[in-house]
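A reminder from the course coordinator: this example appears on the midterm review sheet, so study it carefully.

Given structure:
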């Protein structure tokens, strides 16, 4: 691990630590202590900052210039793991809320592609590798959060229908469709795609406003992790967090490596970038997603912290595997 990556991880933990102090000291107020503060901050991120980031990212995408073969080599196995974790959790029999399977699925596949991923790509692979990584980042939240939102809203709609005396299929479907589209994740993506298709771009003032709001996602989410940690601690959800961390740090990159190399024929720099993208620790959006559906917030927080700590070891493991594979194929 390079010194630049170590410094980035240290900065992340210091920011999370600041959030923990804020939560413990109750500087953000709230009768419920850090729990209420985390809820307010999470809602601000989910309803203001994340939509601004998603809309601006979607509008600025240049679809013609995207490395679609490399992107497919990454997203196909990631979506497979997403669906497997989701179905596994749906059939597990645990009851943590209708959206719990989607919350665990997002924690198992959504990596910290910006705060950790960009410094890792820049330090390890230079400008050519960073360009591939940025292409992956541009679709990362758009694809994964949209798919998981649809799954979560389907489960929520089914749960509500079961509580009705005489549920109407049409009403259930209409509710699911409305809640899926009019959603802080999906709606900005749809609107961004539509605006992108016009080719008009963004007015400089609008672009600056969106860029400013979007830039708040990283610090707000890191502080939010600290506040949530102050509210719940790491105890009680450690087992689930360990399982999620294993899926994210070991299972997902292993599948991406196998599919990308032997399925899509990637090798060299593109292969290394997609594998290290998959090997990143759990991203802070997992906590925002958990708070949106008010389920497993403590587990998501524990998974983020544990996986980020463990990444120092697992990153070295995957770099060694990639080096051995490159040596074997030369």
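Designed residues:
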């Amino acid at each position: 691990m390079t010194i630049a990556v170590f410094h980035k991880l240290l900065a992340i933990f210091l920011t999370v630590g600041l959030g923990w102090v804020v939560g413990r000291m109750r500087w953000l107020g709230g009768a419920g202590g850090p729990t209420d503060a985390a809820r307010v901050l999470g809602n601000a991120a989910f309803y203001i900052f994340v939509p601004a980031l998603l809309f601006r990212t979607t509008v600025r995408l240049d679809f013609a210039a995207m490395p679609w073969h490399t992107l497919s080599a990454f997203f196909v196995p990631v979506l497979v793991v997403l669906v497997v974790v989701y179905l596994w959790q749906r059939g597990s029999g645990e009851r943590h809320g209708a959206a719990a399977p989607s919350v665990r699925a997002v924690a198992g596949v959504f990596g910290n592609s910006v705060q950790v991923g960009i410094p890792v790509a820049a330090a390890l692979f230079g400008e050519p590798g960073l360009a591939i990584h940025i292409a992956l980042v541009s679709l990362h939240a758009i694809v994964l959060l949209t798919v998981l939102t649809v799954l979560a809203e389907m489960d929520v709609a089914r749960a509500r229908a079961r509580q009705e005396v005489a549920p109407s299929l049409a009403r259930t479907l209409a509710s699911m469709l409305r809640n899926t589209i009019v959603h802080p994740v999906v709606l900005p993506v749809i609107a961004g795609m539509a605006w992108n298709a016009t080719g008009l771009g963004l007015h400089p003032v609008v672009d600056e406003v969106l860029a400013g709001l979007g830039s708040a996602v990283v610090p707000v989410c890191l502080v939010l992790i600290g506040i949530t940690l102050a509210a719940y601690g790491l105890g009680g959800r450690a087992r689930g967090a360990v399982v999620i961390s294993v899926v994210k740090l070991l299972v997902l990159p292993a599948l991406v490596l196998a599919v990308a190399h032997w399925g899509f024929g990637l090798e060299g720099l593109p292969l290394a970038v997609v594998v290290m993208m998959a090997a990143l620790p759990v991203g802070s959006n997992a906590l925002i997603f958990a708070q949106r559906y008010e389920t497993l917030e403590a587990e998501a927080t524990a998974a983020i912290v544990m996986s980020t700590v463990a990444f120092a070891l697992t990153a070295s493991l995957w770099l060694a595997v990639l080096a051995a594979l490159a040596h074997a194929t030369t």
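The chain has a mean pLDDT of 86. The longest helix spans residues 117-163.
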